[in-house]
Amino acid sequence: MTKFIDFYFDFISPYSYLAHKRIIHLNKRDKFNYKPILLGGLHNLGGITAPAFNKRKMKNMKNDCSLIAQKNNIQFKWNEKFPLNSLNLMRGYLFIDEQIKKKFFDICFDSYWKDNVDISQDDNVKKILSNCNIDEKKYLAGIKEIKVKEELKNLTNLAFENDVFGAPTFVVNEKLFWGQDRLEYALDEYNS
What we know:
Elements: E1 5-9, H1 14-25, E2 32-36, H2 39-46, H3 55-71, H4 87-95, H5 101-113, H6 122-131, H7 136-142, H8 146-161, E3 169-172, E4 175-178, H9 183-191
Helix pairs in contact: 2-8, 4-8
């Protein structure tokens, strides 16, 4: 049996947000290894057109996310700035200290998918950093480090090489489960 379920996510993915909230509700967070990827980069590698750029898919995605949130009693609001560039926050997740990651993760996700905040705006990022007690200057310098840039790029490329094509994706015992609606399947595999 594997020690963790790998959870590939991007802050711009509403389905990753919904999956994360369900993980918390099930009190299973300690079973997951959160793996940041750049969803736009992953789509580019796979030649995938994101639903955000297809009007019919986008309309369905908004409705679908609302239904999932209601059914699972998750506070959710479709962000008016969807989609946006999450690059700096995804790099930030890799850069910050391990003991702050959970708080940073929760605040970023809640800001975007609960509070309708534009998390690409400098003032809003400053608020996120302040709420996490993260030094702004160190953070801004850290996300520009080659090591951090390469780590996010490598995680995205590795995800692609391992057949990950969207977010959220769960990988457990070398089996891939795509989509928030496959969370229970991933947990079943973990417990098998």
